């Protein structure tokens, strides 16, 4: 596609279309993500942050979302500056920790994109033709867009935005030829007349790389029981590092040793990924468009400026993988491929302690194999049965338990992880579940996952008589959150939770239950319980909640039950709120005590019922009881 000498720039919003005075489109390249800085003079429409917009150069569209708004007023005009980012930069701009267990690549991408708010076939489409293996991946406090780019590099995938004035769709494929819809183009450079006698090409800029490759090694020190790191530097022609630019303007010979070529066009005629043949009397070279910068002005802002400038970066060493900002895949991110090998220095008998290595591959397809990554195993420990278990410093100070059956070393089993090197995991014939971790003290941590729910169960070798969660010195709050479904905490005897701040969230129900006493103490902050349908606190002996501020909110029902006594103490305000339903306070044999130095508010959409065979004590300077029906007082 070519753009004429008088292109039109339009920004389409939900309120209407506006003419653009100037713009600069940056970072548009193989990664497909871009950023547009737009200036509008005397805007006639309103724009909101986060709004979906469409910027068009004639009939070529760039969709995105408004990231930044800046308004400037003067005697002459009202100027509006807008920053628009590409669709995936908007949807995936978040840091997350997620585990993708035993999924195919298609299932992983579907889960990642739909959770971000995109709709299959409408906002994105997968066109993966190669056979897919099941993999285990985890995203650990990574930016989702960077994690997405890492997946592309890891498995050799490509993507492109299919954009029209009506909408945009992200197409992901494993065949690059499906995305390259633009035919190769030839540009001829003559020593005197310029580019074929025309003025499209006005500048050449050569870039030669003088780079340093830095390799970081991690090893385990058995004396200090810590992970240590060392770095080794070496010159590498294509490593990402320091770059030295050699720029020559106007007519110049092409440096054949250089890797990249910058050129400036006064028209919009090439696209990322398109092949370009640069023809010169001294040399003829094939390049690929790697990145572009578009700059445009209208006559009302700059009469003497070129209406459209296209600065293009061409590369001879174009990689078959899209750019991912030098994100390196880490060994802990992929589990499905590996080989456990015994070093020559180790004893051949695996029943004795020896030095082992695990070889991880950063993905593998039918056509290509990737460079392996070695991780040192400090000890191999033999256990009875068909499993071997040993620990490896895997991610920070975390140790991962790896085993294999019947001596088949190229089929390792990732069995689990514990956060401390001193408490090793143990696998035996009695513990063959890949979701179960057992410590040397016979404590067990069981992970259970199905299509409807996920759960974590902690089982001790001795009887569990008390369940206690206490605040550590370096923590500021204690938070339990269930974003989908119910949040339940059950104990056979006692529940005792202490922290500066207590926060409990659940989409459906919050339930606390125990046989004996329940104590919820927020010493300096506030206690906050919120649920869509039900909040239930039940115990057989004593229920006590103490906080600076106590706030309990449920849409339908709040149940507070204790066999003996019940006490709610707030040094400031206490607010128990049910918008549509009822509150139920009940003790079988003890009294109910409610104290607040500030305001005490009990608000029920339908009813408030307080039942006790003994006394009800309210201590507060201000009390408000709001409900259609109040009984039991």
UniProtKB/TrEMBL annotation:
SUPFAM superfamilies: gp5 N-terminal domain-like, Phage tail proteins
Pfam families in the cross-refs: Phage_GPD
Taxonomic superkingdom: Bacteria
Entry protein name: Gp5/Type VI secretion system Vgr protein OB-fold domain-containing protein
Organism of derivation: Legionella impletisoli
